[in-house]
Specification:
Blueprint: E1 27-32, E2 37-42, H1 46-49, E3 55-59, E4 61-63, E5 67-73, E6 78-88, E7 91-97, E8 107-110, E9 115-122, E10 128-134, H2 138-145, E11 171-174, H3 186-194, E12 198-204, E13 227-231, H4 233-244, E14 249-252, H5 254-263, E15 273-277, E16 292-296, H6 303-312, H7 314-326, E17 337-340
Parallel strand pairs: 1-17, 3-12, 3-14, 4-11, 14-16
Antiparallel strand pairs: 1-2, 5-6, 5-8, 6-7, 7-10, 8-9, 9-10, 12-13, 13-15, 16-17
Amino acid sequence: MKTSDFYYDLPQELIAQTPLERRDSSRLLVLNREENSLSHRKFYDVLDYLRPGDCLVMNNSRVLPARLLGKRLPGGGAAEVLLLQDKGDKVWECLVRPGRKLQQGAKISFGEGLLTATVEEVLESGNRLVRFDYEGIFLELLERLGKMPLPPYIKEELQDAERYQTVYSKINGSAAAPTAGLHFTKDLLRKIEEKGIRLAYVTLHVGLGTFRPVQVDDVTNHHMHSEFCMIDAETAAMLNETKASGGRIVCVGTTSCRTLESLADAQGHFAESSAWTDIFIYPGYHFKAMDALITNFHLPESTLIMLVSAFAGYDPVMAAYQEAVKERYRFFSFGDAMLIV
């Protein structure tokens, strides 16, 4: 299976640059696997496709305002640091710009010295280990000084940082939003729960590897980045009860899917657990947990479109993407959504 098999032609103007005013008013393309049919709906119509006894699984990770703009010391040249992973003891793995100016020992100041940083090590990947120095609470400083790390295909400035968070985001740690969840409002979640659908929350901290292109011709030679994920005891019990009673597990986004498929045992049962996962799901994968998926439209040749194709079938998914382009759906993070049942 070749990476190029997952290419589709996308006009640039279909890449959504800003979120819609109302989260749940985006369009929803419904792919029914059994009927091999496509339907065009609004996102709030997702309620019509969820059944009492189902369990809706959402990733409650919250995006850190992880993009820091500062000045190099001495001299004052511009510097940018993007936090990727907390290594402990005030050290983070980061992406930096300009790389050639930020070698080992380089120092950076943010917010007129409220936060300073020193590059401690240049990693083989080109990422940096950066030690921060500050007084107070790091997350509070980030909220004050940091910007949302929007994907590279979004060129417009985000007016309201909360629009790049889900309404149920809770646990800080992601470098990018679990974007399928951006469509939900608190009111829609209330209606879903009132219909008899259980709401379950897992955590997977999304890394920027999400946006890294697959750089090998043969899909099977690609190695995924690792991301931390966890399921608590309450969620594990809810998932097991849903399966036992014949309900469906409906994942909101590929991150929820990857969490469940990483932490389920061979029989699809769950227990309280956490792990670093580098699971790579592509056609031929046998799903242990997920029965339905809500997801956004993904980049051509990405691991995410491969995951969706593994679940719904290669031909139906590529046909659905062609239909979405023809019907001028909005694509990627702030774009429209797809429901696969």
